[in-house]
Amino acid sequence: MEEDSTLLDEKLQKIKRVVEKELSCSAHDMDHVMRVYRICLEIAKYEKNVDFDVLKAAALLHDIARVKEYQDTTGSTDHAVLGAEMAERILRDLGYPEEKIEKIKHCIISHRFRSSVKPRTIEAKILSDADKLDVLGAIGIARSFMIAGKWGQRIYLDVPLEEYVKENVVNGRIKDIRKHAPNLEFELKFKRIPEKLYTKKAKEIAKERLRFMEEFFKRLKEELEGRA
Question: From 33, 67, 132, 154, which residue has the greatest number of CB atoms within 10 Å?
């Protein structure tokens, strides 16, 4: 098993610099990318036959098109699909073998929560799990409110979920991020994450992080209503 280290070799350093230039969203910056990178390595300790060349590159590149998706208010841009296309050019320029490029692209395309493409490889499953874990727990709450502040969202929206989905969700993606709210993200996404995980270790981590979030949003609603 490869040592759990965030040290990056020359190729990974180059990838990291390219990704840094693309990311300007506070909740999807390099801090998020590197947390996912570290979680990937942690989960990989408990799995067999992991290709670390594929896993590490995919972890660094998985959100490279996230800002472009946010900027498209039509909801037609999928950062996973676009990110895989961008990653292909970057990886080819760095001399990655075509076989590994295809595996990395699959990891990126299948990593997102609302994707219809399911992870087929252990590397893709690990990345998918690691990315989902980074929206749970205390970090998940903090990131939700970072996004809320950036896009001028309210801290809580007490609206019927079915009505909200009908008006502001297109092909499983949020159409206008400005009309979203942290509690809606919790109801629509975070609660469903454990059922979307593939690895045993990720499921263990998710269970505890989700319990913490449930208590937080319950308390938040009570305080907003003056009941606590």
Answer: 132
